[in-house]
Fold this sequence. Notes:
- The chain is an alpha+beta fold.
- It is built from 17 helices and 17 strands.
- Bound molecules: 2-acetamido-2-deoxy-alpha-D-galactopyranose.
Amino acid sequence: MSSQQPIPIYTNLNELYGELGTTLNHAQRWNELAENFQKKFGRKPAYIVRAPGRVNLIGEHIDYCLFGVLPAAIEQDILIACAPRAVPTSPQDETHEPGHVTAENAHTKYARQMFAPSQKRRGSVTDGQVNIEEWHLDINKKELRWESYVKAGYYGVLNNYFNGDLNTLPVPVDLLVTGAVPAGSGLSSSAAMVVASTLTFLAVNGKLDANLTETDDSKKISKGELVTMAVANEYRVGVNSGGMDQAASVISIPSAALYISFFPKLDVSPAPLPPGAVFVCANSLVVSDKAVTAKTNYNLRVVETLAAARILARHLNLPIGKDEKLQLREVVGRLVGEVKEEGEMSTEKLIETLKRMDREIEVLKPAKESADGQLGVTMEEMVEKSGLTKEEFHQLYLSWVEVEATHFQLYKRAKHVFSEALRVLQFRQVCLDAAASPSSSSLEVIEKLGNLMNESQKSCNELFQCSCPELNQLTTLAREAGAYGSRLTGAGWGGCTVSIVAEDKVDAFIKQVSETYPLYKSLSGDALREAIFATKPSSGACGFAVS
Ligand code: A2G
């Protein structure tokens, strides 16, 4: 498998359904979407694109520090049906103007949205040419709006393919979105939306053409390129995420989880899951709205880990430029003289260095421990430890993001990141060893993986502080119901847990958790089945060219 492969474009959906899983009726969903599109827009869609959500088995809040993670795509996905619009419905109708988008959502609570990009110009008209700096779309970062994710995908396509050339404007587009990934659940509905939207605008503008011949391969966008675009697009919505969700949504395969590493470059390899182990997702039903909480949660953690990286680099006498935003993984690399061009250092070396870092992080503790034992440093102390002036520090770490805190928990965050990075490598090794010796006891393997997941939950709760009371309760109930390990998955502060359960105990496990988690008591039927469900790795994003 490789991130260089092109995005698969199907012309026969029967090939695809088999790879997606059997919990949802995929054929029905795809057909209904196409019919609905026809009803709303009066013609067949030209393409339907799919981007799945993901469950992260282990490796939380370390992707933006450039450490490897271990997710798998899930069956639940976002589908978008789309077609270029050619004919105006009336002389006043602007929807056929180049660049115009009419976006509908199958969920009736989301209203129809219409928007078009405006141009930000640079310079003046010279030689009859206007230089366009970039296309612009208004995206409200303060409030979570469904169409923001559609715009985010469009933004990337506009600025990667339509810059500086007034003659090749994007075609006007009608699109209809439907989603089976619950929003705010930690299963990455946002990245699935952004990937699906990016694919939509690539498809209708002929950048993802099923008809390109073999010799046109260079024109096809690769999976890796789509990941890079989708990550940049997601920044537009205001969250400074790492690349895990987009990579999982795009590159996943149906037979295994993915080990994704980001340094020195994006790299993926399958992590075979042991037979007899089932991963069950359970939604805490606490919705975590990243757009609203980013400044005290997600984006704050990004800043804390970056500041920790600078202070550690300084403490270890590593070279670091004044305006260099070094990540924790890069500190580890620089410490052992890793050379980018030679690829990632050996796993043994990485493990050894991560263990060493656990001692070095003492330097991140405050000079005087506070009465509450929180080990946070004040802004003044953080700036001082960084070796930068206040202005330099603000410019580098705070000018591009809004964060709110009186104390910064650099020690705890770094301790989580290094230990979690180690757990990912251990988890992957257990999977690889088990696959290499099929005679090993599957329960022993499941137990080892479960222990690592439990340690991860403890670290997320105590050190990274991204859990919440409901997630703690749900993971405890999951262990009581027979899970070997249980942890939050995704950003946390609400959303889903993932538990590892022996295959023959899954039904009993789901029944017990359904009866004991207080927020499930009022749920039944489909609502309960959507809240707690077993997952199997599913395949990554794709398109379908409707004939
Ligand atoms: O939290 C979110 O899912 C992030 N993705 C992902 O990059 C990762 O950091 C995760 C925590 O491990 C987005 O914000 C899109």
